[in-house]
Amino acid sequence: MEEFKYKEKKLESIKCNICDGVDFETIENKSVNNLDVQTVICKKCSLIFINPRMSAKDYDEYYMRFYRKDRSEIKQKIIEKNNLEKNFENARRFGKGIISYMGEFVKDGLTIDVGSSTGGILYGMRECRPNLKLLGIEPSTDESNYANKKGVETVRGLFEDVKLDLKEKATNILCVQSLNHLLDPKKFLLWAHDTLQDDGHVFLAVKNWRHQVRRAGSLHLGVQIDHVYMFTPETLKLLCEVAGFQVVYMDVDEGKNREDIKIQKNNGLNTHHVRIVAKRLNSSLKSDFKKSLYLKTRMELFPLFVKFVYIFKYSHRFAFLRKMLHI
Ligand SMILES: [Zn+2]
Questions:
Q1: What rounded mean pLDDT belongs to the chain?
Q2: Which residues are found with C-beta within 5 Å of the ion, ligand 1?
């Protein structure tokens, strides 16, 4: 199979997706598969992202032709997305987990999942809440066909492109493990704001990059070109606020003990994530970009500090040390 020639792609510089700022600091120059990928942090709001990055056209090409191969090389296994049934069942458990943990915010009515894959999340949610009307939006033909066969109405395409003839406003909109792949995550939240009814909620589950790199022990191990944005709980909250949402629920896996993580996993939720429920407001909250957040995030991602946390908290090799010190 032909290689994806990242080095030959023309990269473009972008401004910050949260605050429109242009003052950044580079925190890493390599990706997990050793490409020259520059990761920056915004000095105003602390958003971390790849910059400069490939154009939308090159990302399209990457997803269409190379994405699965590249990811399977990283993971050293064939990704589970190839197994539609397994994907559906895992997502179904996740959907039930959303009701167990965030059910108080899920109101009857139109429930849209953006990047809905095989429709399992919506299916699992409706098993617990029969009055939910389901609609998936999914670019993959195989996955959207599978969802429709399972009785989860799914439109094929990207949320920006599909024409939805909605008879009503949505009560719930979900975006699970897709937000950091989007080239413009704020655009998604603004779209959700337009599509939701007044008191509707958006449900997000996103990888916490700080947690990810600490578990891995090095920043470059958390950089991959398909994760265009790398959120922390704080920046995810800021993104919601600038788009006109108020965060009413936030669950962060970082800092939880093994027992809690195990219970959560048994209930279908993933680990190393941030889960947020945010309520639609009629006006956006006044954004408060604190210099202290930037300094704190910068320090937490200082390579030596990341390594230190890795050794004392996550590394299997140093488990004996933790045992000795009772930590
Ligand atoms: Zn910013």
A1: 89
A2: 16, 18-19, 21, 42, 44-45, 47
